[in-house]
TrEMBL record:
InterPro entries: DUF3455 (IPR021851). The keyword Signal applies. The keyword Transcription regulation does not apply. Keywords: Signal. It comes from Penicillium salamii. Residues 1-18 form the signal peptide. This is Malate dehydrogenase. It comes from the Eukaryota. Pfam families: DUF3455 (PF11937).
Length: 249
């Protein structure tokens, strides 16, 4: 892979979105350079997940461990938005004390199983990078993950909320028949070190509700939390976020 090509692609993504201020482009380029060189030195085998381990101890109160009878099936990187609403007919004084209401999330899921198998520490560096990369740059994100996964099925699925308000994970884009509707079993605050801020959505353990699969973990989150109040906000708020999703079945 030609590094200068991908570096120019990254900087083009930034300029297209109108953000040429320092130090944003250089910070992105520096992060990309670091990850690129580490990925280039990884020699991947059959991507066995037998030794891949979630960083559950990174939070002050760890999430419950996966059930004893389950094994790790997939690891994915999710990039999308956490979605919120604010009342549109409230006075400005009222909006200053109303908190945005969560209405779900949508995300594209990228195959990261081989990267998790090869280098967990490197995998954990990716969410803070892609959470601030514009959604229109999916090609760049796929290329970044491809360097680690050596996979042709880079986008393996999508995450969204169904009509009943359940978090749903659909992995059929990868050719798998796996999909799962989940419900929340446990949540813990994200460690501030994840992206250097307190704006990261909580880490979650999601249990099986229906479909194919049993448990899903959302960990190593970056961004996604809403503004503290609805003051000055639109009726619909879309907050960028990224996270790792670990699937056990």
């Amino acid at each position: 892979m030609n590094f200068l090509f991908w570096l120019s692609t990254l900087l083009t993504v930034v300029s297209v979105n109108g953000d040429l201020s320092q130090p944003r482009p250089l910070a992105l380029a520096s992060s990309f350079t670091h990850i690129y060189h580490q990925l280039d030195n990884i020699h991947l085998g059959n991507c066995s997940l037998a030794n891949a381990t979630m960083p559950l101890n990174a939070t002050k109160s760890p999430l419950p461990a996966p059930s004893a009878n389950l094994t790790l099936k997939y690891v994915a990187l999710g990039r999308g938005t956490q979605n919120y609403t604010c009342p549109s007919n409230s006075s400005s004084n009222r909006r200053s004390i109303i908190k945005p209401e969560a209405t779900g999330a949508v995300a594209t899921l990228f195959d990261a199983s081989c990267l998790a198998a090869a280098s967990g520490s490197l995998l954990h560096e990716v969410p803070p990078l892609i959470s601030t990369t514009p959604l229109g740059s999916l090609a760049f994100m796929a290329a970044l993950v491809a360097q680690g996964t050596r996979s042709t099925n880079l986008i393996i699925g999508e995450h969204y909320f169904n009509g009943d308000g359940d978090p749903l994970f659909d992995l059929t884009l990868s050719g798998s028949k796996s999909w799962i509707a989940t419900n929340k079993k446990a949540a813990v605050p994200a460690p501030n070190s994840t992206s250097g801020s307190s704006n990261d959505v909580p880490w979650l353990k999601l249990g099986y509700k229906k479909g194919h699969g049993i448990e899903v973990y959302r960990v190593v989150t970056s961004l996604g939390n809403p503004p503290s109040t609805c003051a000055g906000q639109n009726a619909t708020i879309l907050v960028p976020y990224a996270a790792e999703y670990w699937f056990y079945g």
